[in-house]
Amino acid sequence: DIQMTQSPTVSASVGDRVTITCRASQGLNNYFAWYQQKPGKAPKLLIYSVSSLESGVPSRFSGSRSGTDFTLTITSLQPEDFASYYCLQADSFPSLSFGGGTKVEIK
Amino acid sequence: QVQLQESGPGLVKPSETLSLTCAVSGYSIINGYCWGWIRQPPGKGLEWIGSICHNGDTYYNASLKTRLTTSADSSKNQFSLDLKSVTAADTAVYYCVRLEHLRRVFDKWGLGTMVTVAA
């Protein structure tokens, strides 16, 4: 099984540049996505195929990869961005797996 | 637009079967896509449970496979989940989802339904 590891929390302030990392246990193709989840809500798709921005998502969100490390970057953190973020790998489609999630909290 | 809506009991007793249904509107489930379930225990992360595709193929999380059955009813345009022999560890918010093949993402989500396993 492919394991995805995320740091549990990131502390930041409004206006900060924030990076959230997801490390895969093995090499992956580019079927990799990021979701944002706010309390009491279903997750929302932000990024797919490592770096493609979902329609309607602000351009301050971007995705990239370096080897088995995948990164979600928020260039200027906004108040509405305080949330949890989950990575999703789909190499083993149609069996998929999520990372453990990273909560972006107020510093 | 495509909408998904979960329904089912909010409380299930230990050792019994958890049964949920997802009603789909705005798209016929037999026309394409896989349709599935994801759960989230309180305060924890997301776990893919399983999927049933438009052609009837099913795919299950290996950790749940022995307890899990998914099915679809095209006449009602809905799909279902049966998880047997539940324990407190199955307490979670359960989401039904649409799985898009091309981008390999869960692109449509239901609102989620909380299921508690307790006596």
Characterise this structure.
The complex is a heterodimer of chains A (107) and B (119). By secondary structure, chain A is mainly β. Chain A contains no helices and 11 strands. Chain A has strands at residues 4-6, 9-12, 18-24, 32-37, 44-48, 52-53, 61-66, 69-74, 84-89, 97-98, 102-106. In chain A, strands 2, 4, 5, 6, 9, 10 and 11 form a 7-stranded mixed β-sheet that branches. Chain A has a 4-stranded antiparallel β-sheet with strand order 1-3-8-7, with no helix packed on it. Chain A is globular and about 35 Å long. The termini of chain A are far apart. With 119 residues, chain B is an all-beta fold. The radius of gyration of chain B is 13 Å and the shape is globular. Chain B starts with a strand and ends with a strand. Classes of the chains: A mainly beta (107), B mainly beta (119). Chains A and B meet through strand 4 and strand 10 of A and strand 5 and strand 10 of B.
Summary tags:
heterodimer; A: 107 residues; mainly beta; seven-stranded mixed sheet; four-stranded antiparallel sheet; 0% helix; 49% strand; globular; B: 119 residues
